[in-house]
Predict the structure.
Amino acid sequence: MARGTLREAPRSDKNGNAELLQAAAECFMEQGFHATSIDDVARRLGATKGRVYHYYRSKTDLFFDVHREGMRRNFEAVRPVVRGPDKGGVRLRAMFLRHALSMMENLAFETVVVQGVHMHRLAATTPEQRRVLNELMTIRNDFEALFKSVAYEGVEDGSIKAPDVSIAIKAALGALNWICIWYRPRTGETEDDRLILAEKIVDTIMHGLAAEAE
């Protein structure tokens, strides 16, 4: 589906309860899915666990909604630069840059997205959970397809040279998604600091794709 119609991750903060999702994302990032309890989330939120259960039947349902919100933020970050008058290589670099920054700025949510991928691979879930995970993986695949679509345009207009666009994009997104594993904000870090780091990462990726020099 590299060039097809793409779905977007829906906004998943039920009734606007963004604080709950943020608290849950931080707990899942720090402790992992299995070690995190509803009590942990409630303590982080500064509320009773009854507030959590008011919105979610289980920890798994909460985890899935955090995953959805992470993907929604990914789409929101790259959407403004997908289309435009620039060549495919220029737009692809802009997409990579925005995704890298989103990984840093939404670190807790994007860590949960990566955890969700691992959960899907392990398949240690109930049939209903498996159904939801498959839906989440479809959203993830649609996000990847955005990059493939622009990369194909770059190949056609000569701004990108990639023998296999699908493999190139998977490798590039793999490198960007891995940011959530090694990156942690430093004391006093600024937006400019994150931008400089993101540009270094993306320039390395684009060099590998042999894009034309600006």
Observations:
- The CA atoms of residues 27 and 41 lie 6 Å apart.
